[in-house]
Amino acid sequence: MSAEVEETLKRIQTHKGVIGTIVVNAEGIPIRTTLDNSTTVQYAGLLHQLTMKARSTVRDLDPQNDLTFLRIRSKKHEIMVAPDKEYLLIVIQNPSE
Amino acid sequence: MLLMSVWSCFFGQDEEDGTETGEGDEWMQGKTLIKPLDQLDLTEAELKEEFTRILTANNPHAPQNIVRYSFKERSYKPISSVDQLAVHFVLEGNLLHQDSDEARRQRAKQGDVEEGGGEERADSVESKAGKKEQKITNQFNFSERASQTLNNPLRERGCQTEPPPRANFSATANQWEIYDVYLEVLQKQEKNKEKAKAVPKKDDDKGKKKMMLVETQSDDITKVAKVAKIIERMVNQNTFDDIAQDFKYFEDASDEYREQEGTLLPLWKFQYDKAKRLSVTALCWNESYKDLFAVGLGSYDFTKQGRGMLVFYSLKNSTFPEYIYPTTSGILCLDIHKHLPYLVAVGFYDGCVAVYNLKEETLQPIYKSTAKSGKHTDPVWQVKWQKDDMDNNHNFFSVSSDGRVVSWTLVKNELVFTDIIKLIIEIFDNVCRPAACGTSFDFHKQIDYLFLVGTEEGKIHKCSKAYSSQFLETYNAHNMAVDAVKWNHFHTKVFISCSSDWTVKIWDHTIKTPMFTFDLNASVGDVAWSPYSSTVFAAVTTDGKVHTFDLSINKYEAICQQPVVAKKKTKLTHIEFNPVYPIIIVGDDRGYVTSLKLSPNLRKKPKEKKGQELPKGPEVEIAKMEKLLSLLREPENSNA
C-alpha cells in the first residue's frame, strides 16, 4: 500500500510542469516537501488556513457535503490543494509549460 | 436584674413669668425680672386668665399615626394604640437577689472555686480564689492579669508541586462539526450493536485480533493515498487541459461542409511502461463507471508467448493506470460484468479462464480454472458474462480454439464448468473431425439462449444454449478465421462479422447470405456496432486505419477512413465504443490505446425517412433496406 502511494507521489512530482509538492499534517506542519524550508513553511501555513476556511464554508452550507479539492490559479502558476481528514496535499504546477 | 427607669410627666411650658421651670428659678432668684424682647405684651385681664392644664400620661413625642402593613388585608393599616412609653435612661444592673436561683448557683460555684484552685472568671463576677473565704467580688476594682508565653519561632514551610500539564485547546462549534460528532456516535452505536451480535459467535479471538489490526495506525503515508490520487488527476487535467476541453466541448464545425464524411479527433493516448512490448488483445468499457475501461494485454504471435497484463485506465488519468494485474500468460479476451463493475472475467492464451475482483487488494484472481477443473486446451478467444443463473450464481461463457463453448459458474470458492456445445465439423462420411476452433462469439441481446460462434474455418454457427450437439444454423461467412461477430444493439436480426480475409459482412440471421459486404483492403482486426445508432459501425484494420460506416448515409463506403497511429507498421487490434460519450478507444499491437472523438457526422441519429428505395438490388437488399428503414423510424426500439 505505502509503496503505491509513494509511487503516486513520485509520479506527481515528476509530472510535467510541477514545481513542488508538500504534504502537511493536521496541525499545519509540513511532513514532506520538495521545496526549500522557508517556502514550504509559508505555503503550508497559509494554505492550511485557507483550506480550513474553504472547508468550513462548504460544510456550513450543507453538512453532508465536503470539500474535495481547491484550485488557485494565479498569473504565474496554479496551486492545487486536496484536503483529507488528517492531511493536506499541496501541489504547485505551471500548467502552461 | 432590675430595670431602673425613670418615668416623668411633662409639663407644658407656661408663658407666664411666675411659673418657670425649676432651672430657670435658680439663677433668676436674686435678680430683677428681665423681659425677653419678643415676649408677648398681654393686658392685665389676659394675664389673669386661667388656663386649665391637664396632665396626661401621653408622650407628646410619640407618633400618633403609625401605620403598619397588614399582610392579611394587604394594605397599610393605622395602629390604634401607640406606645406612649419614653425611655430616658437605661442602666443594666447586675444585682442578684440572694435567694434567686442564679445567686445560689453562683454561691455554690464560688464555694468550689475557693476550694479548687485558680480559675479565671468573667469580669464582674467572683475574683480569683486561693482563699477559702468567700471573697466578695470586686466589680469595680478590676485588675488585669496577663502573662506572656514564649512564642514559638515562626518557620515558613512551602511546598511546590509540579503544575498539571497544560495544553491549549481550541475548537469551533459549527453546524458541521456537530453533524460529524453525531455521525460518529451513530457509527459507534452500530458497531456496538454488531459486536453485541458477534459476541455469541465462537471465533471471538479471531474477531478480536482483526479488530486490533484495524485499529492500529497504519503508516502515515498510506492515508494520503486517496488525496494523492485526486491530486494526480488534477495535475493531469492541467497538463492535458486542451484534450479535456476537446473531449467535452469540441465539435468539428467543418462537418457541416462535408456532407457525408466525418473525422475522428484524437484525444488521450494511454500507455503503460511495462506493457510496451505487449499488444492490446482486448478492450472493454465498464458499464457503471463510464470513464473506466479495461485493457487486456498479451500477444497474438504464437512464437512470442510470454506474460500478459490486465490494466484499467480512467479517462481522468491518462498517464497511469488505475489498476494493474500482471499475469503469467497473455490475455486474449476480457469482459466486465454489466451489473457488478468489479467483476472481470479474463481468458488466457494458455486456455485458463479467471475472474478478478477489483475490490480485492491482491493481484491474484479470485477464481481461476485449472487443468482439473476443465480449462481449455487452447487459447480462449472470447468470454462473456451471462445473467445470474437460478441459484443467483454469476456465470460466464468462454469459447476457445479447442472447439468447446463452456459455461463457468462461480459457486462459492470454485469455478464449475459445463460444456455447452462442442463445435464439430462434419464430413460426408459422417466421421466427426476434431472440433473446429471457435474464435469469437456473441450472445443475442434479447433472446437469451441464442448465440453466434465464429470459427477459424470462417464459418459462423448459430447455436442455442439448450442444444449441445446441434447448431441451429451455419453460415459460410468468410474464407479465413472469423475475428469478431457481433449482434446489432437495436435490430434483433442483424449481426456483423469481420475476418482476416479483409472483409466485413452484415447479416440477417434468417438469411444465409450476407446483406452487406465491405472490403477494407487489409486484414480486419475488430468491428463494433455503435451504441447510439443501428446503422453505424466501425472497424479497425492492420494498416492502422479506422473505418467508420453509416449505412443510412452511405451503404457502400465508409464515411470515415482515418489512420490513427503514427507509425505505419502498427496494427490496430481492437475497437470499442463508449456507451455514453462519443468516443472510441482503439488498441494496437504496441500496447497503446488511443481514444478518439467522433465528429458530429458520424453520430447522426437516424432520422425518419420514408420509403427511400434504391433503384435496384436483389430482393434481399430491398428487404434489408426496408429493415433499415424500420430501424430508421424507430432506432431505439429494440423490438423493431
Automatic annotation (TrEMBL), chain A:
Gene Ontology annotations for the cellular component aspect, listed alphabetically: cytoplasm; cytoplasmic dynein complex; microtubule
GO molecular function: dynein intermediate chain binding
Compartments where located: Cytoplasm, Cytoskeleton
SMART domains in UniProt: Robl_LC7 (SM00960)
Gene3D superfamilies per the UniProt record, alphabetical: Dynein light chain 2a, cytoplasmic
Keywords linked to the UniProt accession: Cytoplasm, Cytoskeleton, Dynein, Microtubule, Motor protein, Transport
Transport as UniProt keyword: yes
Residue span(s) of domain Roadblock/LAMTOR2: 5-93
GO BP annotations, alphabetical order: microtubule-based movement
Role: Acts as one of several non-catalytic accessory components of the cytoplasmic dynein 1 complex that are thought to be involved in linking dynein to cargos and to adapter proteins that regulate dynein function. Cytoplasmic dynein 1 acts as a motor for the intracellular retrograde motility of vesicles and organelles along microtubules.
Family note: Belongs to the GAMAD family.
Name of the protein in question: Dynein light chain roadblock
TrEMBL record, chain B:
GO BP annotation list: cilium movement; determination of left/right symmetry; outer dynein arm assembly
Ranges annotated as biased composition (Polar residues): 136-147
Region (Disordered): 100-147
UniProt KW keywords: Cell projection, Cytoplasm, Cytoskeleton, Dynein, Microtubule, Motor protein, Repeat, WD repeat
Superkingdom per UniProt: Eukaryota
Composition bias type Basic and acidic residues, residue spans: 100-135
PANTHER family: DYNEIN AXONEMAL INTERMEDIATE CHAIN 1, DYNEIN INTERMEDIATE CHAIN
SMART domains noted in UniProt: WD40
GO molecular function, one term: dynein light chain binding
Function: Part of the dynein complex of respiratory cilia.
Pfam families from the UniProt entry: WD40
Subunit and partners: Consists of at least two heavy chains and a number of intermediate and light chains. Interacts with BICD2. Interacts with CFAP45 and CFAP52. Interacts with CFAP53.
Any GO CC annotation of this UniProt entry: outer dynein arm
Family statement drawn from the similarity comment of this UniProt entry: Belongs to the dynein intermediate chain family.
WD repeat intervals: 475-508
Protein's name in the database: Dynein axonemal intermediate chain 1
Subcellular compartments: Cytoplasm, Cytoskeleton, Cilium axoneme
UniProt main location, coarse: cytoplasm
